[in-house]
Amino acid sequence: MTMTETGSHLAAPPGYRWRWLGLAVVLCAEVMDLLDSTITTIAAPGIAHRLGGGTTFMQWLGAAYTLAFALGLITGGRLGDLYGRRRMYLLGAVGFTAASVACGLSTGPAMLIACRAAQGAFGAILIPQGLGLLKDMFGPKDQAKAFGAFGPVMGLSAVGGPILAGVLLGADLFGTGWRSIFLINLPIGLAGILGAVLFLPSVRPTRGQRLDPVGMLLVGAGLVALLYPLVQGRELGWPWWSFALLGLGAALLTVFAAHQVARSRAGRDPLVLPALFRRRSFTGGLILGVVFFTAVMGVTLAFALYLQLGLGYSALRASLASAPNALGIVAGSIVGGAVAGRLGRRVLHLGVLVIAVGLAALAGLLATVGAGLAWWHFAPALLVLGFGLGTVFAPLFTFVLGDVAGDHAGAGAGLLNAVQQVATATGTAVLGTLFFGLAGPRPDAADWTAALRTTIPVAIALLAVTFALVFLLPRHASDQG
Questions:
Q1: pLDDT tens, 260-285?
Q2: Domains along the chain?
Q3: Could you write out the DSSP letters of every residue in 29-51?
Q4: Backbone dihedral region of 405: left (phi > 0), alpha (psi from -120 to 50 degrees) or beta?
Q5: Is 0.85 topped by the overall pTM?
Q6: What is the DSSP secondary-structure string of 89-101?
Q7: Do strands 4-6 and 9-11 pair parallel, antiparallel, or not at all (unpaired)?
Q8: Tens digit of pLDDT for each residue in 194-223?
Q9: Which of 35, 78, 323, 356 is least surrounded by CB atoms within 10 angstroms?
């Protein structure tokens, strides 16, 4: 296999023979991650009953994964830059699969939480390699199409996780019960490992580079200090220390940024290259991503809670009711990926407007029909909402990572994933707290309906900010002026 040089990094040629099969391997990892970040939603009560855990245990089934994932994201991406993305993909896939099996074999709450944390840690090594590998395998013309494949996978996996959990729990395959939701990763993981060996390019740096251990410690501690109170704060009533941790997290990340600048000026390898932030597409895309994901993930959580708490849906039924949203994401991703090259940043404007229309339609539905809603009432608004989401996803990835040099693509992808994690947690905390506060202490269906109806305009306001932030981006992903 011949390689071409990109900066200080060797890359597979743009016409890499197995690039589309390689894309399927990358998406396999995304499926495992997204399924495991959502699949415990429906299974948590049953797992707690079987293993003897309480409500705190159920919260930590998700929190252990999220925090460990965030802790290692940027470092995981940088490991791929330094030691080869295929090698790190394989390490992450093997570790993630093994941790999934260990989850399925857990005998108590502590063991399961520890194994969930191990899943998150290996996921942090695995996931950032995907976007870097796409840059290695695809030339500029095909990158938008490759990034466009992420939207459908994200939508279907996010909705499909709870549905799959319900099916597996109901089927009780071979008497495995709840354990099957983790053991299902074994065949998926083995397929990803085999595919990586066969179809991913072996790409390595051209010069020796070193990790930045101080930077790793600072960014990891900073992200955990930010995310822990955002994940747990609402459940604990926002104690004083949660705000202290948020301040500490912001301070640690500020020190991390200064450390990266100093290290770069000294001619030493930083964890995140400060020069990346001089690129309008990268910096503007990250800022936009913070506001965008805060809005859409926050309101998505509020809607999911409304279906279960306000309308009395089970988690499985709520997931099925949200299926039109996933279908819209698939369609929007296909369209967004196809027109992004021609429309440039205007496709992001279009997507944000469509999302706002979908949310406005949902708010109007709540105002006119009220609490007497059936699942099919939501379908048109959710389809429009999903289409807008899909239209934004693919071009946003292209803008943020399209012009990042190959030897820093992993760190850039890790940073983008970290931004998504922080924004998702922020949206969940802020809009979730608003939603519960508006519902009141003893809410009925009408109270939950009114709470969601009032929360939606806040998300639309954040989308208006997102629309304005799109102007920070160059007209096209390849323009840096």
A1: 999 988 888 888 878 888 877 788 88
A2: 8-211 (1.20.1250.20), 217-270 (no CATH), 274-481 (1.20.1250.20)
A3: HHHHHHHHHHTHHHHHHHHHHHH
A4: beta
A5: no
A6: HHHHHHHHHHHHH
A7: antiparallel
A8: 999 999 988 766 556 678 889 989 988 998
A9: 323
